[in-house]
Amino acid sequence: MIASPRxxxxxxxxxxxxxxxxxxFLLHSSHWGVFSARWDGExxxxxxxxxxxxxxxxxxxxxxALRHSARIKRPCIRRGWLENGPGPDLRRGTDDYVEVSWKxxxxxxxxxxxxIRTDFGPAAMFGGSYGWSSAGRFHHAQSQVHRFLNxxxxxxxxxxxxxxxxxxxxxIPHIIGNFENHTKRNVSWAQIETExxxxxxxxxxxxxxxxxxxxxxxxHVERGAMERAHKRGCRFILIGPIQDDLPAEAGAxxxxxxxxxxxxxxLGLIHTLVSTGLHDQPFLARYTTGWDRFEAYVxxxxxxxxKDAAWASGITGVAAKTIIELANALHGRRxxxxxxxxxxxxxxGEQPVWMGAALAAALxxxxxxGGGYAYALGAIGYYGRRNNAVxxxxxxxxRNPIQEFIPVARIADMLLxxxxxxxxxxxxxxxxxxxxxxxxxxxxxxxxxxxxxLRKAFGQVxxxxxxxxxxxxxxxxxxxxxxxxxxxxxxxxxxxxxDPLLVPMRRVAPPxxxxxxxxxxxxxxxxxxxxxxxxxxxxxxxxxxxxxYERTRGALVxxxxxxxxxxxxxxxxxLRLPQEPDDGGQLRAFRADPSSHPLPTPSGRIEIFSETxxxxxxxxxxxxxxxxxxxxxxxxxxxLYLVANQPATRLxxxxxxxxxxxxxxxxxxxxxxxxxxxAAERSIADGDIVRLFNQRGACLASVRLDExxxxxxxxxxxxxxxxxxxxxxxxVLCVHGNPNVLTRxxxxxxxxxxxxxxxxxxxxxxxDGILPDIRAYDPPVGRPAR
Length: 786
Ligand SMILES: Nc1nc2c(c(=O)[nH]1)N[C@H]1C(S)=C(S)[C@@H](COP(=O)(O)OP(=O)(O)OC[C@H]3O[C@@H](n4cnc5c(=O)[nH]c(N)nc54)[C@H](O)[C@@H]3O)O[C@H]1N2
Ligand SMILES: Nc1nc2c(c(=O)[nH]1)N[C@H]1C(S)=C(S)[C@@H](COP(=O)(O)OP(=O)(O)OC[C@H]3O[C@@H](n4cnc5c(=O)[nH]c(N)nc54)[C@H](O)[C@@H]3O)O[C@H]1N2
Ligand SMILES: [Mo]
Description:
Layout: E1 26-30, E2 33-39, E3 44-48, H1 62-65, E4 76-78, H2 79-84, E5 97-99, H3 102-119, E6 125-126, H4 141-153, E7 158-160, H5 168-175, H6 179-184, H7 189-195, E8 198-202, H8 207-210, H9 222-232, E9 235-239, E10 253-255, H10 262-275, H11 281-287, E11 288-289, H12 291-299, H13 309-316, H14 320-330, E12 335-339, H15 341-344, H16 350-363, E13 372-373, E14 405-407, H17 411-416, E15 421-424, E16 427-430, E17 436-440, H18 444-447, H19 451-458, E18 463-468, E19 480-483, E20 492-494, E21 501-505, H20 518-528, H21 532-536, H22 541-558, H23 566-571, E22 575-576, H24 585-592, E23 606-607, H25 611-616, E24 640-643, H26 659-663, E25 671-674, H27 676-681, E26 689-694, E27 697-705, E28 713-715, E29 732-734, E30 759-766
Parallel strand pairs: 6-17, 7-14, 8-9, 8-12, 9-10, 11-23, 12-13, 17-18, 18-19, 24-28, 25-27, 27-29
Antiparallel strand pairs: 1-2, 2-3, 4-5, 4-19, 15-16, 20-21, 21-22, 24-30, 25-28, 26-27, 26-30
Helix pairs in contact: 3-20, 4-20, 7-9, 10-13, 10-14, 10-16, 13-14
Bound molecules: ligand MGD (2 copies) and molybdenum atom.
C-alpha cells in the first residue's frame, strides 16, 4: 500500500518526498501521477506527491518492475532475420533472439534503414508508432521516432487520430467544433461541485480512468469533486453495463443498459421530451441547425417508427418507465450529459457521441456552468480541469514531407491489403505499400484488435525495428530490438497542458544492463544515416531540457510571472504554473453571443443535421444521428457481450510485470468478471479458470462473480501481456487473458475508421485442462519463450 499523503514524513517545503533529496527520495512523474522514488541499489521505494489529495496506486508497479527479468538488457536480433536477412516472415512472434553489441545493432538497423530509403523511399517506412510511452516532455518516444524519421529518412507514413477517441475526434469537429476545445475547455469538476443538479454519465466516469492523464498529474481531484457534488444534492445517474463505473462517493443510481445500445436509449429520452413538449425549443432554434429533420426521424414521421420509450426499451433492456422518469428528471434542471470514450470505441461509435449532443441540445443547457454536454469528461484525467496559461516544453518533430497517412487503427488492413481503397472522412484513399516499420513507445500486440490477424499483418513487412524497455508482445515480433531506459533511469521534464505542476524528473536509478535512452539510440542511428547533427543540434540531454524549458520560461516572463532560470527549476520541488480561468470555453461564449462567437462548424451552430456528413453518402453514418443495429450482436455460439475496458491496476500493458498489476491477478491470470446467473448456467464458480472464446480466438482468465455486472455481460480489462500457446494453431489461445485475441478488427464506420475494440461477443466455459505456465515475461533470448 502507498501511504496516504498525510501519513508521510515531512510536508514542509523542500524537505520531503515532493522533491527534496532528503531521505534519498527524488521527484519524478508518470502518466498516473507525480511521485518520488528512492533506489538503494537493491530496492526501490516510492511515495506519492504530497500535494495530491488522492494518489493513484499504479505507482506501486515501479518497485518490482525496475529490475524485473522481463526488461531487455542488450540489443537483440531475431534469429530468422539475422540468418535470412529482411523479408516477409510469419515466424515473427515464435522466433528466438540473438544478443549483439550496440555497435553491431546500430550497423544492422542503420544499413536496413539506408536500404529502405535508397530502394523504396521514405513512403515505404511506417512510423506511426502509436502508443503512450512514458511521461516526460523530452523522452517522449513518439516525438523522438518522428523527429528521427523526418530528419534521417526524409519522412514516413504516419497515422492519424487515436485508439482513445477514433470516432469522436472525427465527428466532433463536424458537429460542435474543435475537439480539444470541446473536451478541455468546457464543464469542469469545479463547476459540477457547485452548479450541477443531475449528471447522466453514459459509460460512467470511473476513477480508475480519470486518475490517468498523459504527461503527468499532480492532483487527482475527481473523487473529491463527485463526493462534494453528491453531498450538495447533485444526482449522478450511471448508464452502463457495470455498476462500478462511478465511485461510491457519487452515490449513483444505476441504469444497467445492454452494451452498444446507448444511442437508442438517448433517442427514447429525446422522444419523451419532444412528445411532452419539454424540449427547449428556443435553444434549438437559436443554437442548432437541422433539428426539424432530426425530429421527423425521432417521431417516426420518416419511417413510421416513433423512437419512443417503449421502442428504446426493447433495444436497451431499460424499462420504458425508467426512460420516461429520467427524461422528466432532466428537464428544468441544470443537467449534464457525459459520454465516455468507451462508447465510441465500438461499431457505429460516432452515433452515441452525436446523439449525446442532440440530447443535450434538446435539454438546452449547453454553455451554462456545470450544464450541457461534456463528451469524455471523466474518461481520462485531461478533462474538467483548468488549462495552463503557458505552453509546455515540446521536443520538435520537424517536418514530414510525406502526405500519406492511415487512420491509426487500420494498421492491419494497410499491411494486408496494400493498394486497396477505403473511405475516411469523406475521402476515398488507398493503403500505402509499407516495407519497414519503426515502433517506439507503443505496444500494438496490446492495443490492436484480432491479434491473430495482426500477427499475419506483421508477417508481411521486410523489417520491424522496436525500441522497448521490456519484452512485450510487440518486441517479440520485432526483427531488431533496441533496449531503452525506463523513465526512472533518465532525466526529463514532466508536465501536461492542464496540470499546474511542471516537474523536474530526476534520475532515480542507473540504466539496466546496456539500455540506452531513445534519444541516444536515435542519435547513433541518425549518425549512421548522416544526420546526427541535424537530429541532435549538438545538444546533450541536459542541454535539450534547458532549451525546451526556455519556451515555458519565456512565456512566464511575458506574463510577468515568477520565471526561475533552468538551474533553479531543476533544483526545485516543481514549478507552479499560472492557469487560465475556468470560463466554460467555446460553448459558454457561443451561448452568450452566437453571432460574434459562432462555433467552428459550417453553420456556426451545433449541427444536429450535417450537410457535410450527409454529402459523404456513408450508409453507416448518415446526415443526422441515428440508431443503427450492430452487425455483431450476441448469437447462439457467442451469447455474451464482452466489455474489454481499461485496467485499474496499470496503464494499458505498461508495467504489467509490476507488483500492483501482478497482485490483481489470480493464478497469474487476468480476472474476468461475470454475473452469478450467467456463471450458474455454465457451472462456473468464483475463482475457476475459464476459457473465453469466439470465432477469432480464445483466452484464459480467472473468473470473479459479481452482481455489479448486467446479466449477459462479461468484463475483462486489457493489458495482460499476450501469451499465445501456439501461434500457428488454427485458433490462437492466450493463456494470460489478453482480450484482443477476441475483439474484431473493423472500423467504427466509413466516416472515422476508429478502433472498435471495446465490445465483442463471446462464449465462456470452465477450463479443466492442465493450466499452461505464463511465459509472457520470459525473455526469448537464446530460445523461444514457448
Ligand atoms: N480491446 C481493447 N483494446 C484497446 C482498448 C480498449 O478499450 N479495448 N483501448 C485502446 C486505447 S484507448 C489505447 S490508448 C491503446 C493503448 O495502447 P498503447 O499505448 O500501445 O499501450 P501501452 O501499454 O501504454 O504501450 C506503451 C509501450 O511503450 C513502452 N514504453 C514506455 N516508456 C517508453 C520509453 O520511454 N521508450 C520506449 N521506446 N518505449 C517505452 C512500454 O513498455 C509499452 O510497451 O490501447 C487500445 N486498445
Ligand atoms: N487505470 C487506467 N486508467 C486509464 C487507462 C488505463 O489503461 N488504465 N487508459 C486511459 C486511456 S488511454 C483512455 S483513452 C481512457 C479510456 O476511457 P474509456 O474508454 O471510457 O474507459 P474504459 O474503462 O475502457 O470504459 C469505461 C466504461 O465504459 C463502459 N462501457 C463499455 N461499453 C459500453 C456501452 O456500450 N455503453 C455504456 N453505457 N457503457 C459502456 C464499461 O463498463 C467501461 O468500464 O482511460 C484512460 N485511463
Ligand atoms: Mo486511450
